[in-house]
Amino acid sequence: MKYLILILCIVFFVSCEGPQPRHPVKRSTTNSIQVAIERSKKLLAAEEALMQAIIKKDSTHSYLQSASGSWYFYNKKNNTPSATAQPDDLVTMTYNILSFHNDTLYRMKDIGILKYKVDKQELFPGLRSAVKLLKENETATFLFPSSLGYGVPGDGNKIGINMPLKSTIALLKIEKDSL
């Protein structure tokens, strides 16, 4: 009986120690982030090489590089000294979207004439930056890497995952912000 009381006392004192906190399972996300960064760098390098091949093959146009990373040439240039579109301006424009293989994804006729408040409405990143490069009555053709297009998700319809795009943009009118 003495042993039973002694064992019960030991069990009682040991069990009153309190709960031990569980430590989180350590998972390193740094490795997966690094892998994604490397994959993005390789994709961008491949798309830039593809754009350079298109530019080299096209001897009839003189391409310019934008600060955002796209390449473009003017189909119709406005040589008068006029301003380009600025944030909060309302622009009237139309555009099309093609693949780098010149497959038409969206025609100008299907998209129609679009009124766009610069930097205040949603368009894909390349188109938002391209609008600010053009003057009224100018038309230019742009080559966008997928990061400036619809990126990883695509548009869920005709534009696929990580698809670089070619787009001809016609800026019809710029209405300056009155503020």
Runs with pLDDT <50, length 5+?
none
Strand content: 15-25%
> What best-fitting shape do the alpha-carbon axes yield?
elongated
DSSP helix fraction: 25-40%
Radius of gyration: 29 Å
Output the number of helix runs: 4
Main sheet characteristics: 8 strands, antiparallel
* Mean pLDDT figure: 88
Describe this structure in words.
This protein is α+β, with helices and mostly antiparallel strands and 179 residues long. The radius of gyration is 29 Å and the shape is elongated. The longest helix is centred in the N-terminal third of the chain and has 28 residues, at 30-57. Helices cover 30% and strands 23% of the residues.
